[in-house]
Amino acid sequence: MPDENCTICGGTGWKILERGGLSGAELCECSRTSRTAANKENSRIPPKYQHVSFDNFKIPQDNAHAREHLGQALLQVRGFVREYPAVDKPGLLLIGENGTGKTHLAVAALKALLEKGYEGVFFDYASLLQRITQSFDVASGASLREAYREALEAPVLLLDELGAYKMTEFVEDTITAIITDRCNNGKTLIATTNLPDPNVTGTIFQYNDPSRMKIARRTLAEVIGPRARSRLFEMCRVVQMNATEDYRVKTGQVYPKPQK
Ligand SMILES: Nc1ncnc2c1ncn2[C@@H]1O[C@H](COP(=O)(O)OP(=O)(O)OP(=O)(O)O)[C@@H](O)[C@H]1O
Ligand SMILES: [Mg+2]
Ligand SMILES: [Zn+2]
User: Are 96 and 162 in contact (CB under 8 A)?
Assistant: First the structure.
């Protein structure tokens, strides 16, 4: 609870912050402790990522390419959190291959914002879209519809693995609606995806089994639809996660463990 006699915020719990012509509200010291504890409690960060932070994001020293790119990505994400809420664009989009640390950095950013006093929630894209799809069945419970409301209303939304769910017209409309609503209202979105985008990653090819034909991988626009992709770029600082190795594989986080 804010201190009603606080001379800094006048008892509102928030102070106005101005930087570089941009302004926003920042949590006042008088209400920090109680607020940030409650925020963490409600954030739905999966147990597997509860320990992650900027401090335990390692920059590889044995690979110059990965060192430069991941170092750059870490700086960009840290910069966003430091400037927040006086940021030019209210979102962050982390694009890169599997195991490059996208979810790690996205959660670290979310946690840092919770720490600053903002409310936010973590949603896995597939389970969010599945819950929303099911919620439109007549017999489904209100708790499923609640997920949609939460994804629209949360001041900060972390949408992990954008595009990792089978696409239907309904799913495309839903994700477009969520992104457009956040974009129009300047609400923060932190998204991760491993889908390629020609403007960021260039075209990525893969070999199609069994014909061994080289084909272009499906792009972000092809999967989530061009409208959602366009809004996403409008509202987000784009961070490319470019590592040459999958951190899970490199550090032996493979399940099941390979037989010796
Ligand atoms: N640079 C790093 N330093 C420390 N831990 C890392 C780093 N990169 C990844 N990890 C850890 O490796 C695991 C995989 O990383 P993460 O889940 O963030 O990858 P991702 O890019 O989201 O992959 P995917 O596309 O498969 O979702 C996590 O446990 C994460 O904490
Ligand atoms: Mg991930
Ligand atoms: Zn105060």
Answer: no
For residue 113, CA distances in Å to 26, 34, 43, 169, 191 come to 10, 15, 11, 33, 15
Say what the pLDDT of residue 51 is: 95
CATH for the 14-250 domain, from 3.40.50.2000, 3.30.70.270, 3.40.50.300, 3.60.15.10: 3.40.50.300
CB 214, CB 74: distance < 8 Å: no
Ligand 1 binding pocket includes 163 (Cβ within 6 Å)? no
105 C-alpha to ligand 1 centroid (Å): 8
Tens digit of each residue's pLDDT (9 = 90 or more) over 230-252: 999 999 999 999 877 788 888 87
Please state, in angstroms and as integers, the Cα–Cα distance from residue 81 to each residue in 69, 89, 111, 193, following that order: 19, 12, 10, 20
- What is the predicted pLDDT for the residue at 132? 87
User: How far lies 252's CA from each of 97, 104, 114, 222, 256, in Å?
Assistant: 17, 17, 31, 33, 10
Give every residue of the chain whose pLDDT is below 70, as ranges: 138-144, 254-260
Ligand with the closest atom to the CA of 194: 1
Locate the ligand 1 atom nearest the alpha carbon of residue 107 and give its number. Answer: 18
- Is 164 in a helix, a strand, or coil? coil
CB 134 within 8 A of CB 220: no
Which residues crowd ion ligand 2, with CB under 5 Å? 102-103
Domain ranges of the chain: 14-250
pTM exceeds cut of 0.90:
no
CB 69 near ligand 1, within 6 Å: no
